[in-house]
Design brief:
547 residues; alpha/beta; six-stranded mixed β-sheet; five-stranded parallel β-sheet; globular; binds glucose-6-phosphate
């Protein structure tokens, strides 16, 4: 089945009705019962891909549920969707584009074509240029306008041109060159730029302007302020060439800004913003961790791509995780999924995943443009453990809403210090255990707790989680974890039959802001023709500003 063939409507596929029956049964049972009934459960529901072990046994499923979910994937044409992506078909239908982030990490001898051309040589050409440049910055061979080496790199970008780079830098900080200061500016709030640059030496600072379109308002506003900041100090326009590089697909706009296009690193329209961190958008990452580590990260991505492309669905980790997300969203009504990494280095991973998941699958129509008849993308959110345990986990354990959780942990740490790591990881296992099995009233009563307090202490349990366990957070591992989520998102989108690669929902607000900007900056009171609320807010804002 081609991904563009309209399949039988989702809720009329045979597996859908089996899953409805299955979910009714499972809602009437508990994880305690499921574990008691089947001693082989953990073995059956533990999977591994590229060194990531996934324990799915604490999900409210049986082996039969997995079989039905896999059948749903087959009846939804997931195989054809995957093949179409890797074949460079224009699966982003509303933008008429191929979706080929998998080509960004393909080995140089791979052949991946779209619109009749093999894209892999171009990818490696850019990677090689990035490596030469990164090495020159790291070694000090690249000099700024006044002959000094670069000591600080500031990435200016937003959305997909920021979240991946900042997440990867934080995640791989251990592997980074500590002589370099890395900063990231995204918000058009000047505070972001001012705080990021206040202690930097302009003569030793390099700005990377990362913008696929090179027209994004926030990024261009920050880029112009950066330009001025540099000129205020160095005073010579010629300095721009030594202190600014661009990452973009838009050479014309880059040249207009005043950056020599020799200092531009390109990518392609088949790389979506939120899927771009391993393209030239990762230049800051490569400068921080070096080309070898970057290559190792790409290898991690690629191995997970291959696992996704070739492994039968019943053992395919991203497919299984995507199917479980559909299961909870559509059969249990779960509105959110929490991602809780037990690694301080992954502190920006949930924020990165929010864009990846919610911009991809927050859609209300199918590829054919008709309303989807079920709920789509869940809200993804999270914070690193153990911090979250001392704040919002209360709701996860005893609230009235079921929130499936992904725990992410590592057997080893880059920063061994006393018992810290064992303490950290004991909390992963304990939290997953507490969520799944809870604590009954009888157990609490048996501890002599007063009857009036017992209900408050009851932990209902029966709350699902995935535990992703791997050896150590390395560049390779980060690549494989990100690709795991990318393909998990892909799987969900394919089941729902939506376009996971467009983002029209962000356009309207941008357009409206463009109309409002002159009304805020104008020195004479403008005539306002918005809705009454917007008119009133603008008027109050102008009044307050004047006072
Ligand atoms: C991601 C989105 C969006 C995009 C930003 C920045 O998939 O398209 O987050 O990355 O709007 O766009 P530019 O890179 O064009 O500045």
């Amino acid at each position: 089945m081609s991904p563009f063939t309209v399949p039988v409507p989702l809720t009329q596929r045979p597996a859908w009705s089996s899953l409805q029956t299955e979910s009714a049964n499972l809602q009437a049972t508990t994880l305690r019962d499921l574990f008691a009934a089947d001693p082989s459960r953990v073995d059956q529901l533990t999977f591994e891909a590229c060194g990531v072990v996934a324990d799915l046994s604490k999900h409210r499923v049986t082996a039969g549920t997995i079989t039905d979910l896999v059948a749903l994937a087959e009846q939804s044409g997931l195989r054809a969707h995957i093949d179409a992506m890797f074949a460079g078909e224009h699966i982003n239908t509303s933008e008429d584009r191929a979706v080929l982030h998998v080509a960004l990490r393909a080995p140089s001898d791979d052949i991946i074509t779209t619109d009749g051309a093999n894209v892999v040589p171009g990818v490696h050409e850019v990677l090689d240029r990035m490596a030469t440049f990164a090495n020159a910055i790291r070694s000090g061979a690249f000099k700024g306008h006044t002959g000094q080496s670069i000591s600080a790199v500031v990435n200016i970008g937003i959305g997909g041109s920021d979240l991946g780079p900042v997440m990867a830098y934080e995640a791989l900080r251990f592997y980074s060159d500590r002589r370099l200061t890395m900063r990231f500016v995204s918000n058009v709030d000047a505070t972001d730029f001012v705080e990021a640059t206040h202690d930097l030496d302009p003569e030793r600072t390099l700005f990377i302007i990362s913008s696929k379109t090179f027209t994004t308002l926030e990024t261009m506003t920050n880029a112009h302020s950066a330009r001025q900041w540099l000129l205020d100090s160095i005073g010579d326009e010629a300095a721009i060439a030594r202190h600014f590089v661009a990452v973009s697909t838009n050479a014309e706009e880059v040249a207009k800004f005043g950056i020599d296009t020799d200092n531009m690193f390109g990518f392609w329209d088949w790389v979506g913003g939120r899927y771009s961190m391993d393209s030239a958008i990762g230049l800051s990452t490569m400068i921080a961790i070096g080309p070898d580590n970057f290559e190792s990260m790409l290898a991690g991505f690629h191995d997970m791509d291959e696992h996704f492309r070739t492994t039968p669905f019943e053992r395919n980790l991203p497919v299984l995780m995507g199917l479980l997300a559909v299961w909870y969203r559509n059969f249990f009504g779960c509105q959110t999924i929490a991602v809780l990494p037990y690694s301080q280095y992954l502190k920006r991973f949930p924020a990165y995943l929010q864009q990846l998941t919610m911009e991809s699958n927050g859609k209300h129509v199918t590829l054919e443009g008709v309303d989807v008849d079920v709920d789509t993308g869940a809200v993804y959110w999270g914070e690193p453990g153990t911090n979250g345990q001392h704040s919002f986990y209360q709701l996860l354990h005893q609230g009235t809403t079921m929130v499936p959780v992904d725990f992410i942990g590592f057997a080893k740490t880059n920063n061994p210090l006393g018992d810290h790591h064992d303490i950290l990881m004991s909390n992963v296992f304990a939290q997953a255990q507490a969520l799944a099995f809870g604590r009954s009233a009888a157990e609490i009563e048996s501890e002599g707790v007063p009857a009036s307090v017992v209900p408050h202490k009851v932990m209902p349990g029966n709350r699902p989680s995935t535990v992703l366990l791997s050896d150590l957070l390395t560049p390779y591992r980060l690549g494989s974890l990100i690709a795991l989520y990318e393909h998990n998102v892909f799987t969900q989108g394919a089941i729902w039959g939506i376009d996971s690669f467009d983002q029209w929902g962000v356009e309207l607000g941008k357009k409206l802001a463009q109309a409002i900007i002159p009304q805020l900056t104008s020195t004479i009171d403008p005539a306002l023709d918005h809705d009454a609320s917007t008119n009133s807010l603008i008027t109050r804002y102008r009044d307050m500003k004047r006072q």
